[in-house]
Amino acid sequence: MIAAQPSREPSLRHYLEHPRGGPTVLRIVLGTQLRRLREAAHITREAAGDAIRGSHAKISRLELGRVSCKERDVADLLTLYNVTDEADRADFLALARRTSTPGWWHQYGDVLPGWFETHIGLEEAASVIRTYEVQFVPGLLQTADYARAVTKLGHPRASADEIERRVALRMQRQQLLSVPHAPRLWAVIDEASLRRPLGDQKVMDEQLRHLLTMSKLPNVTLQIAPFSLGGLAAAGGPITILRFLEPDLPDIVYLEQLTSALYLDKRDDVDHYLAVMDRLSAQAESPRNSLAILERLLKQES
Fold first, then answer.
1. Strand order across the beta sheet in which 128-133 lies
2. Among residues 90, 87, 74, which one has the least CA distance to residue 37?
3. What pLDDT is stored for residue 9 in this prediction?
4. Rounded CA separation 29/134 (Å)
5. pLDDT tens-digit map of 175-192
6. What SS3 state is found at 3?
7. Cβ–Cβ contacts within 10 Å for residue 80, how many?
């Protein structure tokens, strides 16, 4: 029997059978479930840390899904939390094993920083991806040649092989937009990123045509924030908000920096950025007018 165990919907079995998002998401799910069990048993993080020969900081990282989980540690925590039902324990331990299973992106470990690996895993599991870009076309909407030009700009010392590896990673990421049950992508793009030349004119023309093509997908909404708006609600940098169907996964705000990224999931932070995105979407051109802008830009450049 499980003493004082909170309701778990969907069940761990659901995540084992439908591991969308790979180890990144499974770590968050497992951590969330373990936190609920600990709180229901009225056990402190310090006491839980002692049970696995660690610290309260280790428990915090585990509950936030920042680290993979050793089966031994999970088994000890389940015992501490008085989880004795064999079927439930087996599901928890199976999930713990899955948190160490590499995602497809691990094959790009030589060019993939750890802070961005988390983003790819969350992106894979998202049901809605809302993004605002100031300087570049969003990565999920870039052509290979445009991505190559962006990569060369950001990594001027990289070898040709490394550049191609980074481009290949970006192209593989984009496949999530065309799979069954693909997420909805809602992108607001600053007009400056469409007028700023990257690569030669052929690269920019192909990128604009690609945006026109992608915007016709049923799960892609594209808006352009024109120069005429002046100052924007999100002045300062790009924003991505990831939303999930799974109740164990909170909305997450992703803020990318030069050599790192911030992941915000506190309700107040998320609500603030959701309000910013809503204002941006209200200020930007409608999807139909945005298509007209893209077509006009293509005519101007041709």
1. 220-225, 184-190, 128-133, 239-243, 252-256, 261-264
2. 74
3. 43
4. 33
5. 999 988 899 999 999 998
6. coil
7. 17
What are the structural domains, with CATH classification, of the chain?
12-98 (1.10.260.40), 109-301 (3.30.870)
Q: Which helix (H) or strand (E) holds 186?
A: strand 184-190
- Give the side-chain half-sphere CA count within 13 A for 11: 9
Kindly state the helix (H) or strand (E) to which residue 275 belongs, with its residue range.
helix 267-283
Prediction pTM value: 0.83
Residue 177's identity, in one-letter code, is: L
Q: What is the spatial distance between Cα 180 and Cα 198, in angstroms, rounded to a whole number? A: 32
Contact 206, 219 (CB under 8 A): no
In the structure encoding, which two tokens stand for residue 112, read together?
């993939």
Nearest of 69, 97, 80, 3 to residue 46 by alpha carbon: 80
